[in-house]
Amino acid sequence: AYLAHVHDEAVWKILLVMLFTGLTNAVDGIGRNAIIKDAVLDPRNMRMAGIVFNSIYTVGMVLGQGLAGHLVEWIGYPGSFVLNGLSFLVLIFGLSKMDFSHSKRVKAEWKGVLHIVGDNLRYVFRHPGIRTCILLAATVTLFGFAYNVILAIINKTMFNGSRQDYSYLAAVGGAGSFVGSILSILFSQRAPKTFAIGGCFIMGISQLVFSQVTNLNHGAFLMFFCGFGFMCAFLPFRGALMHIVEPHRIGIVLGITFMFFYGGMMFSSFGAGYVAKHFGCPAVLAGCGSVLLMLGCLMPFIPSVRAIE
C-alpha cells in the first residue's frame, strides 16, 4: 500500500519497496510450496496436488496482470495498490482456518536447520531425475516467461496499445495458461515428457511468430498459445518432482524448486528488459522462441529426462 503514495516520486523509493516485496514473496512462496506436504493427507495425491497448486498459482499471476490494468483505469494507482494490500487479509484468514493437526511438528535449532538444508541440497543435485526436473523447469521459466515480463513494453511499442489493450493481452495469455493447466492436470501424468517437449515447441513457434506481428488481435491470439505452451512445458516437471522425491523431503525440495523458479524469473526480467531496451521487443521474443525450440529438440536426448516418466 506504501506504493500508493510514492508511485510518482523518486524511482529509488519504488525499487526499495519492490526489494522488500521480493523478500517477502521469497519467504511466503517457499512456505506455500512446502505447505503442500502438510496439507495433503494421502501421499499418493501429492503429485496431483503439486500440479494443481502450480496451475492455480501461475494462472492467477497471469490473470492478475489483466485485472491490474483495468483497476488502474477504474480506481487509479493508489486505489489499486491499497486493494492489493487488503487482498492479503483473505490469505491470512484462509491459512488460519487450515487444519495441520495431523502433521508432525519438528523443533530444530539453527545448527540443525543448516544441516538439513545442506543435506537436501546434496540430495537434489545428486539425484539425476530431480536435478534435471529443477534445471529444465528453471530454463523453461527463464525463456518461456520473458514475454510476460515485458508485456507492457510490447503493448506500447509493438501495438501502440492502451492500458485496456494490455489487460486484454494479459487476460488472453491467462486464458491460455488456464487451458494448458487443465490439460496438464488431466493428461500429463500419462506422458510428461511429451507434454514438456510439445509445450516448448508451442512456446517457441508462438514467440517467433509473435515477434513479427503488428496487429493487436493477432498478438492476443499468439499470447494464448504462449501461456498454453508454458503450462504444458512447466507443470510436468513440477508434477514429476512430487512423484520422484522421497515423501519426507518433499517440503524442502519444493522450497528449493521455488528458489530456482524465482531465480529464473529474476534473470528473465533483467535479461528481457536489457535486450528490449537495446534491441527491441521483437528481438526478445525471437531469441527466447529460438532457445525454446532448441530445448524441445534436445530434450529427448537428455538421458536423465527418462527419470520423469
Can you characterise this structure?
The mean pLDDT is 79. The protein has helices spanning 3-6, 11-39, 46-96, 110-126, 128-144, 146-149, 151-157, 163-187, 192-210, 216-244, 250-279, 281-298. The protein is mainly α and 309 residues long. It has twelve helices and no strands. Helix 3 crosses helix 8 (163-187), helix 3 packs across helix 10 (216-244) and helix 7 packs across helix 8. The chain is globular, with a radius of gyration of 20 Å.
Query: Tally the helices: what do you get?
Result: 12
- What Rg, in angstroms, do the CA atoms define? 20 Å
- Determine the fraction of residues in helical runs and give it as a percent range: over 70%
pLDDT under 50 segments (min length 5)? Answer: none
| Molecular shape | globular
- What is the residue-averaged pLDDT? 79
Q: What percentage of amino acids are in beta strands?
A: under 5%
N-to-C order of helices and strands: HHHHHHHHHHHH
Distance between the termini: 45 Å
> Structural class from helices and strands?
mainly alpha
What characterizes the major β-sheet? none
The counted number of beta strands is 0
Layout of SSEs?
Blueprint: H1 3-6, H2 11-39, H3 46-96, H4 110-126, H5 128-144, H6 146-149, H7 151-157, H8 163-187, H9 192-210, H10 216-244, H11 250-279, H12 281-298
Helix pairs in contact: 2-11, 3-8, 3-10, 5-10, 5-11, 7-8, 8-10, 9-10, 9-12, 11-12
